[in-house]
Amino acid sequence: MGLLSTVREDLRNARSHDPAARGDLENALVYSGLHAIWSYRLAHRLWLAPSLRGPARVLSQLTRLLTGIEIHPGATIGRRFFIDHGMGVVIGETTEIGDDVMLYHGVTLGGRSLEHGKRHPTIGNRVVVGAGAKILGPLTIGDDSAVGANAVVTHDVPADSIATGIPAVVRRRTEKQREQLVDPTTYVDPAMYI
């Protein structure tokens, strides 16, 4: 996918995920989540060349300074990723994020150890993570799941589930909640999971 196609897809995605979105030009100019994602994509390309890892880290830290969103350039992020509001989001180096994932502000996808290797979460496709949630360690959040606001998740969450609380308690989605997820571009209020 080319650069212009990716930017257009990201702008469409922002419009579909944020009822406050008023237009592509305004979103491109003021949405810190979009700025962080676009900068991450450039930094990630640099990161893939070992000799450019230093500049990749510098770019990611400059982006953090400007947006309040820290995405390590070593993370792997899929298509149509959206960060709403964004301030305080942290995404660690070995994090893997699928397609159509939405994070709210204050989310941490972090590690729990100083060991080398995989130490950050794997987030499946079509996952929504509510404001302030902490997902810690090399665990997996299954496809079509949701993590409620301020939840602390330290164990795997199966597909089609909801995790809420501290520590997070996991339950299967109800039929009503499944109906609300028919279209992954439909706005979903994470407060419905509390």
What is the strand and helix layout of this fold?
Layout (H helix, E strand, L loop, with lengths): L2 H15 L6 H7 L1 H16 L5 H15 L2 E2 L4 E2 L4 E2 L6 E2 L4 E2 L4 E2 L4 E3 L11 E2 L4 E2 L4 E3 L3 E2 L4 E2 L4 E2 L7 E4 L4 E4 L2 H5 L15
Parallel strand pairs: 1-4, 2-5, 3-6, 4-7, 5-8, 6-9, 7-10, 8-11, 9-12, 10-13, 12-14
Antiparallel strand pairs: 14-15
Helix pairs in contact: 3-4
Task: Give your account of this protein's structure.
The protein has 194 residues and is an alpha/beta fold. The chain has one domain (3-193): UDP N-Acetylglucosamine Acyltransferase, domain 1 (3 Solenoid). Helices cover 30% and strands 19% of the residues. It has 5 helices and 15 strands. The chain has helices spanning 3-17, 24-30, 32-47, 53-67, 175-179; strands at residues 70-71, 76-77, 82-83, 90-91, 96-97, 102-103, 108-110, 122-123, 128-129, 134-136, 140-141, 146-147, 152-153, 161-164, 169-172. The strands form 3 sheets. The protein has a 6-stranded mixed beta sheet. Strands 1-4-7-10-13 form a 5-stranded parallel beta sheet. Strand 14 (161-164) and strand 15 (169-172) form a beta hairpin. Helix 3 (32-47) runs antiparallel to helix 4 (53-67). The longest helix is centred in the first third of the chain and has 16 residues, at 32-47. The radius of gyration is 16 Å and the shape is globular. The relative contact order is 0.11. The mean pLDDT is 90.
Average pLDDT rating = 90
Approximately what portion of the residues adopt beta-strand conformation?
A: 15-25%
Q: C-alpha Rg, in Å?
A: 16 Å
Number of strands: 15
- Secondary structural class: alpha/beta
Q: Based on the structure given, which CATH architecture is correct?
A: 3 Solenoid
Q: Which strand order spans the largest sheet, edge to edge or round the barrel?
A: 3-6-9-12-14-15
- Helix percentage range: 25-40%
Topology-level CATH name: UDP N-Acetylglucosamine Acyltransferase, domain 1
Shape descriptor reads: globular
SSE arrangement, N to C: HHHHEEEEEEEEEEEEEEEH
Biggest sheet descriptor: 6 strands, mixed
* CATH homologous superfamily identity: Hexapeptide repeat proteins
